[in-house]
Design brief:
By secondary structure, the protein is of the alpha/beta class. The protein contains ten helices and 26 strands. It has two domains: 119 residues, Golgi alpha-mannosidase II (Immunoglobulin-like, Sandwich); 335 residues, Glycosidases (TIM Barrel, Alpha-Beta Barrel), CATH 3.20.20.80. Bound molecules: alpha-L-arabinofuranose (AHR).
Length: 528
């Protein structure tokens, strides 16, 4: 019944022009903006709960279909969303991680305690080689997070030498070859610690800025093909990302950016991170991931919009020290954070993913596209079974979440060129919470087509849109819409297609395309 309703709603889309005019939305193709980096669609896989075991790794002997221990179903699903980079091994876990525990024969690897995330056993069976194998299987890039909090510059430098050096001159590289990998691994992005103000070492910004300089000096990519020339931003070189602010800690950004102007030797600050989670105003999180009403919906979407304020204010500080915008604002943890799913270990951060999460994802991605000049990396937290997950697994079963479908809809926005959009659709208000009724972004894809994403935030009413494009005579549009019977609709293992995209198309009439967007929906169309 629910599926039937969703299908009916989707079928209402892009109907022929009705007599009454809708909200005008105009895409200006004559004023292209910056490139939307594909890296804003990055993912995050931490050794936390069931995210890695068995979300990715089931082991070679598992009955769950796998390739060299890595689940085939998950690899296939991730390939389809063209994941540009994956951040690993944490998160907080990164500052507890010692890379040597995760190399060599699996039966010789030590079992360690994952202290922060439930004090459970960490087999270390998913280590550097397994992560890189996974990255290569799905055609992604590695964003490796180094340990500052409990590690040393030498440990960090050795790990990079192990991963990237030439075996002809490095015995660490020869160890890598003995462990099965001749060619250097590609490490295009490297994080210097995580949340160093908190789980990563409880540091002041001044202390971390000094440590950053120290660690970054020794965080070297040893592969000539991947090296960053001293002091210069090389788009093909390894980017070093500093641990950044917690939400609105603007002082942290100020201190780090000021430090970045005092470079003397060969360290660089290529990116500064920012972490922000939607769905709670104060710790602990109090909204549920399922079975909620319109009030919780409105509050969570409101909190997602805070991202715009955060990015604007952090960017303004960065502009002061770096007007050429060389340093990336890397929002390398974002997403919803709700109360733990019933019956789950609260430290495993497991939660349901509903149509509300799809709206949060679309709204947040749209914010990033509007700040594409500075936000050139972002990582949703997290990829599988943790927080705002793309994928949920249980035994040999896998389900794609509404968030996954949004990422799939947005694939054409990867490395596309931002196009300005004009619209005023008014507001939607519930119980004193006021939100924009509609959220639109547009881009010219690498294939030359104009793509428009339209999110109807209002869960009570469809939105009628008169879409036009300046500088382009659109003959029609084709795309997909993600609608749902209810705002808290979820996909389950037994009913995996409650929230699934449906094809849509329209022909232009009188110079405009008329679209009827279902309530609480995300639509992406390409103009012909
Ligand atoms: O994503 C879960 C945790 O949230 C990460 O480990 C940490 O960096 C953040 O506090």
């Amino acid at each position: 019944m629910k599926q039937h309703l969703a299908g009916a709603l989707a079928a209402l889309l892009l109907a022929a022009a009705p007599a009454l005019a809708g909200t005008p939305v105009t895409v200006d193709t004559t004023k292209p903006g910056p490139q939307i980096s594909r890296h804003i669609f990055g993912q995050f896989a931490e050794h936390l709960g069931t995210g890695i075991y068995p979300g990715i790794w089931v082991g070679e002997d598992s009955k769950i279909p796998n390739t060299r221990g890595i689940r085939n179903d998950v690899v296939t699903a991730l390939k389809a969303v063209k994941v540009p980079n994956i951040r690993w091994p944490g998160g907080c876990y990164a500052d507890d991680y010692h890379w040597r525990n995760g190399i060599g024969a699996k039966d010789k690897r030590p079992s360690t305690v994952n202290y922060l995330w439930g004090r459970v056993a960490e087999s270390n069976h998913f280590g550097t080689h397994e992560f890189m194998d996974f990255i290569e299987m799905i055609g992604s890039e590695a964003y490796v997070s180094g340990n500052v909090g409990s590690g040393t510059p030498q440990e960090m430098s050795d790990w990079l030498e192990y991963m990237t050096a030439d075996p002809a001159i490095s015995s660490l590289a020869r160890e890598r070859v003995a462990n099965g990998r001749k060619e250097p691994f590609k490490v295009p992005i490297f994080g210097i610690g995580n949340e160093s103000w908190g789980c990563g070492g409880s540091m002041t910004p001044e202390h971390y800025a000094n440590l950053y300089r120290n660690f970054a000096t020794f965080a070297r990519n040893y592969d000539n093909a991947q090296q960053l020339p001293n002091g210069d931003f090389d788009p093909n070189g390894m980017k070093r990302i500093a641990s950044g602010a917690n939400v609105d800690d603007y002082k942290w950004t100020e201190v780090m950016m000021e430090a970045s102007t005092k470079q003397i030797f060969s360290w660089t600050l290529d990116g500064l991170s920012l972490h922000y989670y939607s769905g709670y105003n104060q710790w602990p999180p109090h909204y549920s991931g399922e079975g909620f009403g319109e009030d919780e919906y409105a509050h969570v979407i409101k909190s997602a919009y805070k991202m715009d304020e955060l990015v604007t204010k952090h960017s303004a500080i960065m502009d002061k020290y770096d007007p050429k915008k060389k340093v990336i604002l890397a929002v390398d943890e974002w997403g919803t954070w709700y109360t733990a799913a019933k019956g789950s270990n609260p430290r495993f951060l497991q939660q349901q993913n509903s149509q509300r999460d799809a709206i949060v994802a679309a709204v947040t991605i749209n914010i990033f596209t509007r700040h594409a000049d500075r936000v050139r990396m972002a990582n949703i937290a997290q990829m599988i079974n943790v927080l705002q997950a793309m994928i949920l697994t249980e035994g040999d079963k896998m389900v794609l979440t509404p968030t996954y479908h949004v990422f799939k809809l947005y694939v054409p926005f990867q490395d596309a060129t931002f196009l300005p959009v004009q619209y005023d659709a008014g507001t939607y208000t519930f119980n004193g919470v006021t939100l924009p009724a509609l959220d639109v972004t547009a881009a010219k894809g690498k294939d030359g087509k104009v793509y428009v994403s339209l999110t109807n935030i209002n869960p009570k009413a469809p939105a009628e849109i008169d879409l036009a494009a300046l500088g382009l005579k659109a003959k029609g549009a084709k795309g997909e819409t993600l609608a749902a019977p209810k705002i808290d609709s979820i996909n389950t293992f037994d009913n995996p297609n409650v929230v699934a995209p449906k094809a849509i198309s329209a022909k232009a009439q009188g110079g405009k395309l008329v679209l009827k967007l279902p309530p609480q929906s995300v639509t992406v169309v390409a103009l012909d």
